Amino acid sequence: MSWIRDGPKCLDAKNITEAVDGSLKRLQMDHIDLYQIHWPDRSRHFKVLHSCVSSYVPMFGETEYDPVRQFSSVPIEEQLDALGRAVDAGKIRYIGLSNETPYGVMKFLHFAENNVCYPKIISVQNSYSLLCRTFDSGMAECCHHERIYLLGYSPLAMGILSGKYFASDGAPSDARLNLFKGVPWYCRKIWSSSCITCNRLCFESSSGGKYCVWGDQIMAA
C-alpha cells in the first residue's frame, strides 16, 4: 500500500507509533477507542504485500498451517510495548487483533500477563460466515475463556452468499473474489460444492424461489 507512510512497512515500534499518530491526525481526534492490528506480522499477506519478512499465518479462512512457509517476524513484545506506550499517552484506549489464530491470541495474552506495561487485547476481528466457521473451534474457546470479543467480518463470505457470482451476467470484474483469482485458496473455495450450492440458493431467492438469504443466514421462506 504505497499511499500509507511511503510504502511497505513492518509492525515494529517505529511504524506502529507513526500509524497511530497519522490516524489521529487524519481523523482529527484526540484518541482512538479501539486500535487493532489488521494482519499478524507473521502472515503470508504481509509477506506478499510488504517488503518486511514475516512468518506464515493462514489467510481468509484457510485451515491448513504449513510450518515450511514460516518466516521471521517483529517480536510480539515490541508490538505490545509500542501499543502500551500509545495507551499510556492517551492516544488509544484498547487494543485488538485481526485475522489471528489461537496461537497468536494466546501469545499476546501471555506477554501482557507477564508485563504490566503491555495492554491486554479485548477484541479479535476475523472472517465469519456460513462458509467460514474456523472461529468456532479453537478461537471460540480462547475468546470465551479470555473474554475477548469477536468482531466478525465478511458475513456474506466476500459476496458469495449474495449470489452475484452465480448470476448469468456474472459479478463485476472488481468484485472482491474476482480480485483474488490468483490466490490458491480462492480457486479451491469459490468453486467447492458448498459454494456452488449456496450460490444456487441465493440465485433462487432473487428469482422468487423458496429460499431467502439475510446476513449470514439461509432460511426457508
Description of the molecule:
The chain folds into two domains: 1-154, TIM Barrel, CATH 3.20.20; 157-221, no CATH class. β3, α5 (138-146) and β4 (149-150) form a beta-alpha-beta unit. The protein is globular, with a radius of gyration of 19 Å. It contains seven helices and six strands; from the N terminus they run αβααβαβαβααββ. It starts with 12 loop residues before the first helix and ends with a strand. A four-stranded parallel beta sheet has the order 1-2-3-4. With 221 residues, the protein is of the alpha/beta class. Mean pLDDT is 78; it is low at 44-55 and 211-221. The protein has helices at residues 13-27, 44-49, 76-88, 102-113, 138-146, 184-190, 193-206, and strands at residues 32-37, 92-98, 121-125, 149-150, 211-214, 217-220.
Nutshell version of this structure?
The strands form two sheets. The chain has a four-stranded parallel sheet with strand order 1-2-3-4. It is an alpha/beta fold. Helices cover 34% and strands 13% of the residues.
